[in-house]
Design a protein that fits this description.
alpha+beta, Jelly Rolls, 3 domains, nine-stranded antiparallel sheet, 9 helices, 20 strands
């Protein structure tokens, strides 16, 4: 009989937007002297990917495609012979991608979804009023696109396209010179000078998560993580369509096909109480919902497929099918072929299902 528990270690990824010791401080480990920017630490099962994400700088503005578009795009790029690792590849697999992130730092900032049209228009009017170089025709064209909550994404796509470039070029210096009025955009501009996403970010909701709060992103929803550390859980897919704030490939054609253009409030996920000292965050996804349980004491969880448990503090005994394992801070286990999981201990444990 296969063991219920497999002790696993993650895989560290170093990217320029990470930060020194960002992963080590979550796991209670020594900071690596070999990795300057610890960005992500990956654990996976056959269905989901769990990450520690440590953002010291802004990540790209991006959208994940839905299932139908992913299937179509993957087949097309395969037929064209575009290699999976080619920098201009947009669809690396056939999967739709839903994700959530739970803040484990005291503050985690993100951009998520489009603001209501009236709010986005007010922000753009404020920026336009501070510019002496914005062409009136271009300004009027942009503001006209911000008249309908269903079409804020049209204004976004226009700004990041060649059509909006002259207006963006006129507005970028204003963002920098008026940093007190546009602090977030000035901060982003320092990282990505000249990027149209700096101006276009004014159309998005600015979200600040406190420790333990969760934000979800569904296929089609524009988002970017700005700063902070979190536990990220997602469906296993590597399909990313980028809009800007990145040196990587930007595919505006496919982005436009995938993008949900309507204004929408950020998807802050409410916790569901579980038995004992535990809560769970559940987000609808394909092929099945993704679930992140946060456990602080004794509880039990039903399991219908592989799961991952990661201890963020304290110590816990995990029992499944008569087998028990004890884990402490920084330890992770994969749980297989079990009908349920009994948990005893104290501290902070996350279980991804």
């Amino acid at each position: 009989m296969e063991p219920m528990f497999e002790e696993i270690d993650g895989v560290l990824h170093a990217y320029a937007w990470g930060r020194p010791g960002g992963v080590a401080e979550v796991l209670g480990r020594d900071v690596s002297t070999e990795v300057a920017h610890e960005a992500e630490y990956w654990y996976s099962t056959d269905a989901v990917l769990l990450k520690i994400l440590a953002a010291g700088e802004t990540l790209s503005l991006q959208v994940h495609p839905g299932a139908e578009l992913a299937e179509e795009g993957h087949a097309r790029e395969e037929a064209l012979g575009i290699g999976l690792e080619a920098p201009h590849r947009s669809y690396k697999d056939r999967g739709a991608k839903t994700e959530l992130i739970m803040a484990v730092s005291e503050r985690l900032e993100a951009l998520s979804g489009f603001r209501p049209a009236a709010e986005a228009r007010r922000e753009m009017e404020r920026l336009l009023a501070a510019s002496d170089d914005a062409a009136p025709e271009s300004a009027a064209a942009l503001l006209a696109m911000l008249a309908d909550d269903a079409a804020v994404g049209d204004a976004f796509l226009w700004l990041v396209s060649e059509a909006g470039r002259p207006l963006v070029d006129a507005l970028l210096p204003v963002v920098v010179s008026r940093s007190d009025d546009f602090p977030l955009q000035a901060r982003i501009a320092a990282l990505y000078p000249g990027d149209a996403g700096v101006v276009a970010s004014l159309l998005l909701n600015h979200v600040v998560l406190r420790r333990g709060e969760v934000l979800a992103s569904q296929p089609g929803e524009i988002h970017a993580y700005l700063h902070g550390t979190g536990i990220e859980l997602m469906v296993l897919s590597d399909n990313v369509l980028r809009a800007g704030l990145t040196p990587k490939h930007v595919d505006l054609v496919e982005l436009g096909r995938a993008l949900n253009r309507a204004a929408a409030a950020p998807n802050i996920v409410a916790p569901v109480p579980l038995e004992g000292e535990a809560i769970e965050f559940v987000v609808p996804a394909v092929p099945a919902p993704i679930r992140l349980a946060v456990v602080r004491g004794a509880t039990s969880l039903p399991l219908d497929r592989d799961a991952l448990a990661l201890c963020l503090g304290g110590a816990f005994d995990l029992t499944a099918s008569g087998e028990t394992i004890r884990i402490g801070r920084g330890d992770a286990v994969r749980i297989s072929d079990a009908d349920g999981l009994a948990i005893a201990g104290a501290g902070e444990l996350v279980v991804a299902r």
